Amino acid sequence: MATKDPRCKPHRRDWNAIETEYIQGYLDETGRHLFPTKADIQNKYNITMQVITKRAKEKSWDRRREEFQAELQKKTAERLMAEIANGGKGLNLNLYKMAADTVSRCHSLLPYAGTGQEIRNLIGAAKDAQAIASGILPTKTPEADIMQINVRGDIMSQIDISIDPAIINNVYLSHVDDEHRYQIFYGGSSSGKSYFLAQRLVIDMLRGGHNYLCCRKVARTVRKSLWNEIQKALSFFNVSHLFKSNASELVITGPNGWQILFVGLDDVEKVKSISPAKGVITDIWVEEATEAEYSDIKQLDKRLRGQSVVKKRLILSFNPIYQQHWLYQQYFAGHWADDSTRYADDTLSILKTTYKDNGFLMEDDIHALESESDPYWYSVYALGNWGILGHAIFHNWTTSDLSDTEFDSYVYGLDWGFSNDPTAIVQLHYERRTHTLYIKLAEYLHGYTNDLIAAEVKKLNPDLIICDSSEPKSIAELKRHGLCAIPATKGPDSVMYGIKWLSKQRIVIDASLRDAIAEFTTYKWLQDKDGKALPKPEDKNNHCLTGDTLVHTTNGILPIRELVGTTGKVYCYNEEKKCMTTSKYRDCRLTQKEAPILQIELEDGRVLKATAEHPVYTQRGWVTVGELTENDSILKLESINTQLLRVTEIKPAGVEDVFNLEVDCYHNFCVNGGLVVHNCIDAIRYACQYLMTEPDEPDQTLNQVSWPKAGAL
C-alpha cells in the first residue's frame, strides 16, 4: 500500500498547541540571542504562517493569526525586559541588529493592537537592551552618571543613546556637542585627539543628521589612518553591525542612511564631486591638517553648504610643527601663547592637548615621550608647542668611530649625480628599539658612469638598493649588472616627510665621513628676505635659475616660475646621440629666495641668469656658471641643429628668487636657446623609505609603530 503524501492532508492539531509550541520553541531556541538575524526571524515567521494558513478552515482564524502575532510580540518584549532586569547578561551583540527597525515599524510590519503603554514598554526595552548590548551603557551604571543624547533620523528616531563619560578622556567631554563652525584639535603626540574625534563621529552617526567627509592630503594614507581609526571606534562601541562598510569605495553607511565618506585632497576632481546618498555634507574632518595647503581648506569650506538639520563644522586635527606654517598664521597668530589650552569665539574653537591629558596611555608610551633628549622635539612632539625654525634642519646627529662596528642588517640608498654633482651611495643601519640611524658609509662618486657605479655598489653586496626615481634607465642598467635596484617613491611633500621622519631619529655618522658631516652641517632651511627660516629646505646644491627663465616644453615656451606644481615634458639634450629629445619633468619649485645671481650674455644677444653653481653645456663639457669665462661657448640647441654661442659678458645681477626642476633620464633641459642641468641626504631619505611607516599615523609614538622586519627590505 502506497504511503500517502503527508502534504496532501496535514496532520490536524489543536490551534492552541501549535501556538504554544511555536512560541515556546522560538523562545527556547533563541534564549541566548533573541534576534539572530532578520532573515532568520522572517523565515521562522513565514513557516509558522504557512502552517497556520493550511489549518485555517474558518474566517475567524484570520483573527487568531493576528492574535498570534500580537502574542509573539508581547512575549518577546517581556523576555527582553526580563533580561534587562537581570542586568543584560543574556543579551547578544547581534540582538538589536534589527530590533530598532522592528520596534519603530511595529504598527506597519506587524498588526500589533496593543495599548499605548505596551508600545512604550516595548520601545523602552529595545532602547535599554541596545545600549547594553553595544557597550554604550554599562549594565550597572547609575542613571545620574549617564549623559543622555537625543537622536535624530529615521529608523533610530525613537531611541536615546546613553554615553558613559568614563570612556572619553575628560578634556574632550565638553566638545562632544561643540557646534562651532571651525574646530581645531591639536597638540602633542599620543594625546588621544584623533580617537576622540572618531568616537564623536560614531555618536553623531547614531544620532543621525550628519554626513561626514574625512580627509587627508594624500589619498593613499586615508585607509591606514582615518578609516582604521573610525573602524576601531565602531568596534569599541560594539556597533559595527549597525553600519555597512564598503572598503573598496571607502564609504560607511549608518543604520539611518547617513554616510561617512573618505577622500584624499590630492584627488581634486573627487573632492569637488563627492556627495552623500542623502542630504548634504555637514561635517568635514581633516586629519594631519599640517599636510594640507590653505587653498585645500578654503575649497573644503565651500563644500559645507545646503540645508541640514545640524550645524555644519570644519574640523582640523594635527600635531603642530612651526610658527611659519599657514595654520598658525591663520588661526593662532595674535591671540595664542604656548601655555594656552583653549580658545573660543563665535565661530572658532581651539583645544590643545598632550599625552598628559590621555588617561588611557600605557606607561611605556609615556616613558618613550618623556625620554626625548632633544629640547626642541620634546617641546614640539611631546608638549605640542609650535616650534620656531632655526637655520639648521638637523641637530639630532652626532659622530662616532664606527669603523670596527658591524651590524646585522643594512639598507642602501643611491642618488644619481651629474656633471659637478657626485653620485651618492649610502649604507645605513637602523636600530628599531632605540630609533637610532647609523650612517656607516657615504661614498661620493664624481664623473662615474653607470658601469663604474654598479661596480662600486657590488662591493657592498646589498640585498636591495633604493635609487632616485628620476633615472629609470640607470636603474635598469644596475639591474642588468645583477643588482636588485628599485626606484624611490616621490609623492607630494615626500621631501618634507622624509626630513620630518629623520628629525625624529637619533643619527650617528661615522667620524670619517667628512662629506656627509658637511652636508648635515650645511643643510639649512630656506630664508626669507628678513633672514627668518621658512619651512622649506635650502636648495643650494640643486643649481637654480631666475623665475623669468624661459623653458622649452612640449606645450610651448614658458617661464620656469609658471611650471611650479606642474608636470609635463621638456626638450633636452641626449649627450650620447648628440641630438635633441624630450623627457618628463617634475618637482618644479622655488629653491631659494633672493639668491645672488650672475648674468651671462651671448654673442647673439641672448641672456641667461642663474646662480654660480648652475652648470651649462660648453665646448669643454659641463661647466658651472661661476666657472665660465669669455673664452667659453654655450651649446645652443634648435631642432636637430646645434651651435656654440660665445660668451661675451659675465656680471653680477643682484639677487632674485630662483627655481629649478627635475628631469628624468637626461638631467638637463633647454632654456633661452642654451642647455642647463640640474643630490648624500637625498640618498639617505631614499634608503629610509622602507623604514618609515605610513605618514603620521594618528597619535602614535615611534615605539607604537609596527616596523618592517629586516628581511622585508
TrEMBL record:
Q: Which CDD domains match?
A: Hint
Q: What is the lineage of its organism?
A: Eukaryota, Metazoa, Ecdysozoa, Nematoda, Chromadorea
Q: What are the residue boundaries of the Hint domain, all occurrences included?
A: 542-638
Where does this protein come from, organism-wise? Answer: Cylicocyclus nassatus
Q: Example GO biological process term?
A: intein-mediated protein splicing
- What is the protein name for this chain? Hint domain-containing protein
Q: Which InterPro entries match?
A: Hint_dom_N, Hint_dom_sf, Intein_C, Intein_N, P-loop_NTPase, Phage_terminase_lsu, Terminase_L_C, Terminase_L_N
